[in-house]
Amino acid sequence: MATDIARIKAALLTQHIETPSWAYGNSGTRFKVFARPGVPRTPQEKIADAAQVHRYTGIAPSVALHIPWDRVDDYGALAAYAAGHGLRIGAINANVFQDDDYMLGSVTNPDPAVRRKALDHLLECVDIMDATGSRDLKLWFADGTNYPGQDDVRARQDRLAEALAAVYGRLGGDQRMLLEYKLFEPAFYTTDVPDWGTAYAHCLKLGPKAQVVVDTGHHAPGTNIEFIVALLLREGRLGGFDFNSRFYADDDLMVGAADPFQLFRIMHEVVRGGGLDPAAGVAFMLDQCHNVEPKIPGQIRSVLNVQQATVKALLVDADALRAAQQSGDVLGANAVLMDAYDTDVRPLLADLRAEMGLDPDPMAAYAASGYAEKIETERVGGAQAGWGA
Amino acid sequence: MATDIARIKAALLTQHIETPSWAYGNSGTRFKVFARPGVPRTPQEKIADAAQVHRYTGIAPSVALHIPWDRVDDYGALAAYAAGHGLRIGAINANVFQDDDYMLGSVTNPDPAVRRKALDHLLECVDIMDATGSRDLKLWFADGTNYPGQDDVRARQDRLAEALAAVYGRLGGDQRMLLEYKLFEPAFYTTDVPDWGTAYAHCLKLGPKAQVVVDTGHHAPGTNIEFIVALLLREGRLGGFDFNSRFYADDDLMVGAADPFQLFRIMHEVVRGGGLDPAAGVAFMLDQCHNVEPKIPGQIRSVLNVQQATVKALLVDADALRAAQQSGDVLGANAVLMDAYDTDVRPLLADLRAEMGLDPDPMAAYAASGYAEKIETERVGGAQAGWGA
Amino acid sequence: MATDIARIKAALLTQHIETPSWAYGNSGTRFKVFARPGVPRTPQEKIADAAQVHRYTGIAPSVALHIPWDRVDDYGALAAYAAGHGLRIGAINANVFQDDDYMLGSVTNPDPAVRRKALDHLLECVDIMDATGSRDLKLWFADGTNYPGQDDVRARQDRLAEALAAVYGRLGGDQRMLLEYKLFEPAFYTTDVPDWGTAYAHCLKLGPKAQVVVDTGHHAPGTNIEFIVALLLREGRLGGFDFNSRFYADDDLMVGAADPFQLFRIMHEVVRGGGLDPAAGVAFMLDQCHNVEPKIPGQIRSVLNVQQATVKALLVDADALRAAQQSGDVLGANAVLMDAYDTDVRPLLADLRAEMGLDPDPMAAYAASGYAEKIETERVGGAQAGWGA
Amino acid sequence: MATDIARIKAALLTQHIETPSWAYGNSGTRFKVFARPGVPRTPQEKIADAAQVHRYTGIAPSVALHIPWDRVDDYGALAAYAAGHGLRIGAINANVFQDDDYMLGSVTNPDPAVRRKALDHLLECVDIMDATGSRDLKLWFADGTNYPGQDDVRARQDRLAEALAAVYGRLGGDQRMLLEYKLFEPAFYTTDVPDWGTAYAHCLKLGPKAQVVVDTGHHAPGTNIEFIVALLLREGRLGGFDFNSRFYADDDLMVGAADPFQLFRIMHEVVRGGGLDPAAGVAFMLDQCHNVEPKIPGQIRSVLNVQQATVKALLVDADALRAAQQSGDVLGANAVLMDAYDTDVRPLLADLRAEMGLDPDPMAAYAASGYAEKIETERVGGAQAGWGA
């Protein structure tokens, strides 16, 4: 048992959870974006906030950028700035949905000039990867249609394939393309990459550096997400996660807040499929917005939630599970899983943090640090960052 | 048969479809609001646009206002302006979701000062009804919570009931309160009025002037909307519709665009339950946004879609239907309904328009009118209207 | 804290969870019902099995009957038989869906002769209540239609109201009618009691002895069940629960198996709304089928799952929660709830069982008892019970 | 225009719609299977009924078999019997879900002996294809799990892949394997082939004779089925359809009954993607059950509904549509589609039937034929066919 705990702690230390720069800015719904005091005005301030999350959790050493929201003149300098805060630059997220030209699509637009503009932006993102040392280009397309007949579904796939091929060809040897899918929104009738199958089919044709990203909020009701995770791991095509949670649509709530048991089941499949091994290349990223709660504590809590689900998954007695499964013992196999889930892992995680030289209670430690009050005082004037238009 | 057609045409002439002022402004999703040339800058320009819809359809003689988006100094003058364009002011829509104070709710907010502010706004809306001669106060609350535990579900109902009672007490003798429900968004975990049952329970306690509004886009997947319509008509509590359509969430697409058969079934229950009789007081209102299509033609098409579904519902052979239902003839009863639905009613509607002195093809007539080009030229400068924050 | 634990244990001892006689029979899907050795052939054998669940959990002292599946000549004798096994007869469940006459409905059938037959069955169930001392008549209607137009939605409501009124008038002073709703299945287009609003509207008209039953598996995707629970408690109309769980449709899985966090949130609203007080009259009933797992252990596990969620709900620090809610501390309020949920309550429950003179591990104790082997040996020949046609 | 009509009629004549033998037997839900007079007792009687559908529609010249439901001693004789009725044998449907051994899965069962038994059944189905001249083996697996942990998700994929490969290797040169997917039911937690992506991934590895079948009732809410159709046609992997319709789950209602506009959009993508060309190999099959309506008229109506959607899709003005799409005219492009949909195509289809020497009104002609009365009189005694266990 002592060995087990040591093994589990060692495994936990290999897991890194990336926070997104946009989580630190203002966000909201189409109805209203609520402004918060202390919200960053610059990419640098976002990085400083992300560093706080790493400081108290010890497992969030990278921050994802979003272009053009995080556009700067000197990306090398930005990476150095991050390094000075103990962080590295994570995935580069392309944005081809917030220009009036993209009303009817970006890389799938019927107008070739718009497609060219969108492709140029994607290629610019690879330049930024070169400059920042980022490994992953994360692609999410808002492209789709709102009305039946609005555009040709199949022609849009052809255009998408052409753009992806051009970007893939531009990738360096250690760089990857992570293709994300989403059921709906902002497109309402068709979405050009609506499900894992579509993303997978494109990745297959592109090559091994193209991988699928599972955003936990992007599925139809009733979809078994952990099944998809298991399948993509089996196919060697799980590039990573965009973690968040939802009750109904793509609500971008804190991961684990809506259905902690689902998050545990997902992490169980990750562990089962070898996805926790850093060599598997699975990127654990958050993609959330904090509309009504403060942003930095919201990120800390989210990182802790992923870690909590991971340790519960590591606690599953794999031998007992396999034995029960093999013998057709439905209740017994389920009980093995539930035993791990029902365990209160907070003491174990507090121990681990103490061993890492961290405060056992990251939420309390951050609250006591005075950082929130400091940025509220200092960050006055300027335009607050937001992921909205 | 000739008599039937005459009866149907007479019934159609009693149906008025109200367009919303906000449909003429810019709108979009949380990802992006796309700007359009020619979009109104003032409530007056919105009314002028609404008048175009009535001009070509002949059945859209009122326009709903949204406060504060349509706030003016002199509401009597605004009503006169509308009258000068052949329109009257329809429902007054309260907005208690776009102020930073409302982040955690308006009338259900835990803070009594915020609740008071929200209530004052609702009462102001009744003042505007007095000044404009509007009959209906339409209430939709964005109130709810994003996280389990965030607030006390039951206390919020108490606060809601208190505010509704205060507003109800302020209504004049001919004024009504229309209470709308919505499954989710912008609140993600609980919504304080999430379903027709909640709206109905509150209306029952308030009195006969409180009625439920069915927004066709506000239900969970799999919900049978026409059943709710039939039930509310049976209870005498169907105040009206907010028409739109959707494929997944509250997409605000043109009514009838996503599922024209559903719209027909809804209108069938309206006809069956006596809701087409003006004495029933059912308000047929559009509540849509045109994100990627032009606004005025989008409204014209929507009005025509409701009319088309209505005429099909009127074509149902009620005697044959009843006979088949009574005899347990499942296929026969279904066939009676489908016969009406499968009929091409466009010739009948073109005839009706000719008799009304209108162009038989409203979409073509509007396109040929030059109005779109005119407003694109004239409406330069100023701030375009939009329903977003 | 010691006081708290004592209070919690006392509260837990007042909670009784009723198991359904049909859970002990064979069940399945429309595709296949799998037969199990040892399954009961008679109502008496079902009661004997239910007694096992009470024996090991100590909190399941009643068993619900289903008529006609549990039809016997002498109901008084059956109640005495149950008493001899330490049980009382719980709710009487009417069944008006398994006769060829009911193909197009029972109490809502267009044919008055079929309606009369169905009503007679409901009245027979009240006779059985009289004979067995049962308090609750549980009504679930499979009635509805499969195709648009098949029957008149509104007329079916009239017929339903008429039947309910006749049954209500027959109830004794201490008897109640529990009306259940269900979104869909076996009817596919309309269901005559599809949602809590419809059940509530009928109960209101009937009187205080008519109460709504929440079956946790009977809602549309995205429905917030705990909100409905809170609302019905506020209205004094929550008659009880039919517990089970599901991933997609009405899957009748073990309660708490699909979403234990949801079950906790439901129990939190029960506790918050005073529903755990026996005086509130909330019946905690299981309504499940065990298709691929053994039946008695499936019931034991389900009872334990409800108890586990209840104790977690009792652990919520109500004062801290209220304070955080009042101050608008979104993350703090959520954390209070999650602290209770994340607690491992198995030791506390093991203690409680020891104090009750029970084995701390009911699943293991039942497995070791030899009862399963005994019934497999003894129950040979005869027709196994099943809830199917 | 005359040319267009001629072209459309010619295209319609190439479309064959296959009816399933099980549609003629009794069916129902897990709650009840209602018995009907006149229902077939043998495969031969089912074929005779299927011949009626072809007789009145002229476009249903084949009938699918279901093994073991349609097991006979001499399949060659059965094919000859069908030929004598003007029919050929269509797809062979394997059934590995109705044996007690399959409780925990068939080809994915943890027990290798059960897997072997299931595989043997699949290979037997290929033997039957050889004997009957059938081209297509349709595989739908009920395999999955009900509870988290019950079995190893990934290992089940390995077992599935192994079985599929064995069957694929046994196929003759002109034979195909059609792999069907289904979101849920009868498995409730995981389904081993839950979506098109999973089916597609397996087909890719097997080879060109493995194709995906789209059952229109097997998707999560909000899924855009026509998008999947367009995608699979683009990939050359659309093997065919199992047509039916539903409001909520896999309801097996008559195709086009729940959402005729969706069926039209599906057929629009079929036409757009070349799937109507017989060379494309897309099999148009019905997979429905008639629970509350008579079976033969239910099939006739379903065949007509597919034909009606097809002719509307053929009426779409492809040039006008492309022009509107290319110019970004959202409303215009949508209007082109709606113009075709709003057309009353019943006169055109009546003409076509007259030209084919058929009665213009197949439903009325069948009703007048006396066949229903005849089989009710003749088919007395014996065991009625049913798709249930």
From TrEMBL, chains A, B, C, D:
Top EC class of this enzyme: isomerase
- Keyword Manganese in record: yes
Residues annotated as signal peptide: none
Highest rank taxon of the organism: Bacteria
For this UniProt entry, the molecular function terms from Gene Ontology, in alphabetical order, are:
L-rhamnose isomerase activity; metal ion binding
Q: Which UniProt keywords apply?
A: Isomerase, Manganese, Metal-binding
This enzyme's EC code(s): 5.3.1.-, 5.3.1.14
Set out the biological process GO terms recorded for this chain's protein: L-lyxose metabolic process; rhamnose catabolic process
Q: Which InterPro entries match?
A: L-rhamnose_isomerase, Rhamnose_iso-rel, Xyl_isomerase-like_sf
The UniProt entry, under PANTHER family, shows: L-RHAMNOSE ISOMERASE
What's the protein name?
L-rhamnose isomerase/sugar isomerase
The scientific name of the source species is: Actinomadura namibiensis
Taxonomy, top ranks, is:
Bacteria, Bacillati, Actinomycetota, Actinomycetes, Streptosporangiales
